[in-house]
Design brief:
Trm112-like; 4-stranded antiparallel beta sheet; N-terminal domain of TfIIb; 166 residues; protein heterodimerization activity; alpha+beta
Length: 166
């Protein structure tokens, strides 16, 4: 599960009013660009006619960042990256989001995201890499109000609710 997905998800357990942000714990994480680099090197070793551009992940794109940035709650992204030990290079958040803020936390926090234009190119690229390439392979998400744990297996979060939770 990529951190962009985590940033947009909330708990829908019956009776939960403050299901955002979900707690994040991981037992295995990886950067997809590093996985792709290894696969590209292996593929290019086998395919002498291959060019570097035939394989891999898309590069950083200012337009993509500009479009996704208003939807991202930066303080939640920073908190998740910190929990995974990958916050190095990220600028500090202006506002910390806590479950007690409720679902409106997204509105509060996204309105106080750092302005993209004020960030250095390296900071924007680091944020992009964290959003799109940091992958939680195994772990869990936890509802901040109910404590319900949702497993993440093979990069897929299982957010299905039991019948009594709907």
């Amino acid at each position: 599960m990529r951190l962009l997905a985590h940033n947009l998800m909330c708990s829908h357990v019956r009776g939960v009013k403050n299901g955002y942000p979900l707690g994040l714990a991981a037992t295995e994480v990886r950067f997809l660009d590093e996985v792709a680099e290894k696969a590209i090197a292996e593929q290019m070793a086998e395919d002498s006619d291959a060019s570097d551009g035939e394989y891999g992940l898309p590069e950083y794109n200012d337009d993509v960042m500009a479009n996704i940035w208003p939807k991202v709650v930066y303080s939640v992204l920073h908190q998740a990256a910190s929990a995974l030990g990958h916050a190095e290079g990220l600028p500090p958040p202006k506002v910390a989001v806590s479950p007690s803020m409720g679902v409106d936390a997204a509105t509060v926090a996204s309105s106080s995201n750092p302005d993209l234009a004020s960030l250095t190119e390296q900071e924007r690229k680091t944020i992009y890499r964290i959003l799109f390439y940091l992958d939680v392979v195994e772990g869990s998400l936890t509802c901040p109000e109910s404590g319900r744990v949702f497993p993440i297996v093979k990069s897929i979060p299982n957010m299905l609710l039991d019948e009594d939770e709907v």
